[in-house]
Write a structure and sequence with these properties.
- The chain has 363 residues and is of the alpha/beta class.
- It has a single domain (3-361), classed as Luciferase-like domain (TIM Barrel).
- It is built from 12 helices and 11 strands.
- Helix 1 runs parallel beside helix 12, helix 2 (57-66) runs parallel beside helix 3 (85-98) and helix 6 (180-188) packs parallel to helix 7.
- This is Luciferase.
- It holds the Pfam family Bac_luciferase.
- InterPro entries: Bact_Lucif_Oxidored, Luciferase-like_dom, Luciferase-like_sf.
Length: 363
């Protein structure tokens, strides 16, 4: 089991200047590499405090590549429906070269109605656009004179430059929240899987992983060789109650931000997102149920011994070969507090786990 970090800003200019947010993020990724974390992932969102400081993951990851040399750099995830595949494939190939072959590419469908409306993309087309554009990116990375006659894009012949540094192409992942169909499709396509495990009960995450592995079997692939990454909020302090207090604060702010971003679901219906009309009412993740979610294994919080025990439980549920990614740079904690969590985890939590792997141990 390896451990990475995920940058998911839930802050705005009234709380933190964007330049300060990015500067702190670059300091944290340098520290994460020194401590042995294997990966940094960055989200894509637009317009809202919920993720809006990260409209271009490739831009930030290029800056991160310049100040690191070993940690892998991932999109978690880019939304291909919002970009032309030639442009997106070129940006990602360029980033793979800038980072000397350290890129992991997570693709996601997106789920915020206001983002789809702003880009002029019908939500009902999101799944089909996702599959067409991801396939187009892979073809542009691996083939010459590519001709695409798709439902949404038509071009060719096109030979992409630059070619990716990793051959035949960077590792590709599907980012999934709750969809069994999306997990099965990722398995059949031979992609890795990124799951936001914090939003679902344990049984549902197990179902998602099972659907993914069955998809791989259906495609004639080994079920256990696909990379699976699970993301969780993580709060560690020498004093467990201090960690939980920080977690309650950050998760409360998260709840406010996602509620504002999903408000439009109250008046939106889409065949591609069944049941999402309930999201506006259910999104608030304030501090009221924080302790319940820690107890259910959906948030990691406590002193080093407590968090190590929580991860051992996760390994028992999903296996020791999954990777965990911790949402860490929301913008609501100081650099010092975020750095303390990363340091305590690497120095006091990971050594308690016999299955933990750090890149500092892989030299």
């Amino acid at each position: 089991m390896r451990f990475g970090i995920l940058y998911f800003p839930t802050t705005g200019p009234e709380e933190k200047n964007p330049a300060e947010y990015y500067d702190e993020g670059l300091r944290l990724v340098r520290l994460a590499e020194e401590l042995g974390y294997f990966q940094l992932k960055v989200v894509e969102h637009h317009f809202f405090d919920y993720g809006g400081y990260s409209p271009s993951p490739t831009t930030f990851l290029a800056a991160a590549a310049a100040v690191t040399s070993r940690i892998r750099l991932g999109t978690g995830a880019v939304i291909p429906a919002f970009a032309h595949p030639i442009k997106l494939a070129g940006q990602l190939a360029m980033l793979d070269n800038i980072s000397h072959g350290r890129l992991d590419v997570g693709f996601g469908r997106g789920f915020l109605p206001d983002e789809f409306a702003a880009f002029g993309v019908p939500m009902d087309e999101s799944r089909e656009r996702f599959e067409e554009n991801v396939e187009a990116c892979v073809r542009l990375w691996t083939e010459e004179d590519v001709v695409l006659d798709g439902s949404f894009h038509r071009f060719g012949p096109v030979t992409l430059l630059p070619r990716p540094a990793q051959q035949p192409h960077p590792p590709v992942f599907s980012a999934v929240t709750t969809s069994l169909d999306s997990c099965a499709a990722a398995g059949r396509a031979g992609r890795g899987l990124q799951i936001i495990a914090a939003v679902s009960p344990t049984e549902r995450v197990q179902e998602l992983i099972a659907a993914y592995r069955k998809g791989r079997v259906d495609a004639g692939l080994e079920p256990d060789t696909g990379r699976i990454e699970l993301s969780y909020p993580c709060y560690v302090a020498e004093d467990g109650e201090a960690a939980r207090a920080a977690g309650r604060f950050v998760e409360g702010r998260y709840g406010e931000k996602i509620s504002a971003a999903t408000l439009s679901w109250a008046g939106v219906r889409s065949s591609a997102y069944p049941g999402y009309e309930k999201l506006a009412a259910a999104a608030t993740r304030g501090s009221a149920d924080f302790d319940d979610r820690v107890g259910a294994g959906r948030i990691l919080a406590g002193d080093p011994a407590e968090v190590a025990a929580q991860i051992e439980r996760i390994a028992g549920w999903y296996g020791e070969d999954v990777d965990l990614t911790f949402t860490t740079h929301s913008g609501h904690l100081s650099y010092e507090d975020s750095a303390r969590t990363l340091t305590l985890f690497a120095e006091e939590v990971a050594p308690r786990l016999p299955f933990a792997r750090l890149i500092t141990e892989e030299r």
